[in-house]
Amino acid sequence: RERTSWNMDSVHWEAVRKTPVLELAHIIEKRGMHNMLAGKIKDFLDRIVRDHGSIDLEWLRDVPPDKAKEYLLSIYGIGLKSVECVRLLTLHHHAFPVDTNVGRILVRLGWVPLQPLPGDLQIHLLNDYPMLDTVQKYIWPRLCHMDQTKLCVLHYQMITFAKVFCTKSKPNCNACPMRAECRHFASAFA
Fold it and tell me: Vertex 84, ends 78 and 88: CA angle to 5°?
């Protein structure tokens, strides 16, 4: 496909690929886990170039979605959440990424059931949530009927919601517009 301003990358990925790991780690230091992530980024970019001669992922748009997912998951260091982000946000596939923010919201709202809670623990005291892959596998059949655009909007809205209301510690439950439907709120203020 021809590259236009509409589909041009904002990052010069070949320059990133050629950057030494330590320098790349320094650049992304504020992100956290920067040393490990820098190596994974470079390994990913090197693998794409080895397999396809360039960093361009446009060829994945023409591959059946399940094959694109399978290929991306075969790359060391790339997990289900990252693959689903690439598929939804870059390839415009029908997908829904579940990161820690989205997973936390889904569990707190009760959209992903936790039955029974360990040791009769109240949900508002829960610190450890189910593995994200487990949440992903549970929620996807319930969201798969939505079109790609709505899935993308829902993903962004849930991340914003997590940063404004449903934070990991000290969630802003009293201001939350979802508190009437929230198991976490009901548990904390019952």
Answer: 135
